Amino acid sequence: SDAASSGAVTHPQWSSRLAFILAATGSAVGLGNIWKFPYITGENGGGAFVLVYLLCILVVGLPILAAEILLGRRSGCSPIQGMAQLARRDGVSARWGWMAWIGFVAAFVLLSFYSVVGGWSLAYVGLAAEGAFSGADAATIGGIFGQLLEDPVLLLLWHSLFMLLVVLIAGSGVRAGMERSIRLLMPLLFVLLLVLVGYAAVRGNFAQALGFLFTPDFSKLTTEGVLTALGHAFFTLSTGICVMMAYGSYLPKNVNIARTVVTIGLLDTLVALLAGLAIFPLVFANGLEPGAGPGLIFVTLPLAFGQMTGGVVFGTLFFVLLLVAAVTSAISMIEPVVEWLEDKGIGRMLGALMSGAMIWLLGICTVLSFNIWAQFHPLDFLARFEGKTLFDLFDFLVSNLALPLGGLAIALYAGWAMKPQTLREGIGLGEGLTFRVFHFVLRFLSPAAVLVVFVYNLG
Ligand code: PFF
Ligand code: NA
């Protein structure tokens, strides 16, 4: 009845719970943790933002992630076909299928700019390896980043290489190679982050960083900051966008979703906090600006690599691992699209190539946002979008609008359209208090949180 086998297409499945955890963690842990979390934390004043973000992960992100994975597993095929079929099976309107389209479009736009930043990591592998940071001061390192952004051809080149990598890996099958590389390289990234935190604790201003990250000062938090925190909870967990739904469609029935989601959430949050702890001590010790924006990690970490013993090796390794984390996330973004085309009878490689080409093309807008179109602010006539480049707008559209809206739809579907028992058994919870809390959160708390934040931001 509810099994994947009831769909028209029979999919391959992850080989085990561990395999799924690895792939889902590979999707979750990425540029969002190491690049985006520190820079938006810096832009939004630190502690209070971090607190709201953590709350959003707990009461909005994780419950919705669990629901999303379950919807995928129940549908057993690509989100677009799967949601409509599932709605019919649950006896509700097939219009629910629309939520998958939000995710579909969001994934396209998201990957288009994610790939450009992935390209920066690629560029920095080379820079670190050739010792470009050795002994350099903050101004020199800032200059290196500035030069990269100024050069549209170079940015386009790195963006193209990154997309090519993603298309080739995604096209050759979700499981091929990915499990192995994540199993090996994730722990390594983790260890390297610990080394960096250690370095920052010794050489940086650790006390000031701790104060900045963990002492909430609510006077620094704007309503837009709250929206950013909410959006980032979705972004960092890869939820609200039907990507985890696509991954969930390969999930064997006996895997406990509740436990899996807790594991993913813990790992993802840990990596983000470690990144913050590695970066902010250096920011403060070097008199850098916490709110410097998207370049933050690219102008602080190289400083550390330039000064530490073995910095060339550590630096190169770090950017390789950042690249791997970015690639495993990017692959997951393209998966719903590839899976959709596959269900329509188009081979994986061809599907990946076709969608990759379109995403690559859209990515050019982001490439130009940092140079030729830096002064092009298409929504300047709306006060709230004043001064935002195309890249800023894409990020806002996806992270702050599409993901929370997609998440809202998922919460409402799981909370209201599904039978409580189907939900409870699917998630893998007993009949006790935990499920009742979870159900309440999905029905009321998470939707309310999204709506309240939206309404405040409209006003
Ligand atoms: N969670 C990824 C990160 O933190 O970098 C980004 C991401 C991947 C968002 C996949 C959405 C997604 F569907
Ligand atoms: Na993440």
UniProtKB/TrEMBL annotation:
Membrane topology: Multi-pass membrane protein
Example of a GO cellular component annotation carried by this entry: membrane
Keywords from the named record: Membrane, Symport, Transmembrane, Transmembrane helix, Transport
PROSITE patterns: NA_NEUROTRAN_SYMP_1, NA_NEUROTRAN_SYMP_3
Signal peptide: none
Entry's localization field: Membrane
Membrane spanning residue stretches: 18-35, 47-71, 92-117, 153-172, 184-206, 226-248, 260-284, 304-331, 352-376, 396-416, 437-456
Keyword Lyase carried by entry: no
One MF annotation (Gene Ontology) recorded for this entry: symporter activity
UniProt cross-references to InterPro entries, sorted A to Z: Na/ntran_symport, SNS_sf, YocR/YhdH-like
NCBIfam families associated with the record: Na_transp (NF037979)
Family: Belongs to the sodium:neurotransmitter symporter (SNF) (TC 2.A.22) family.
Protein name: Transporter
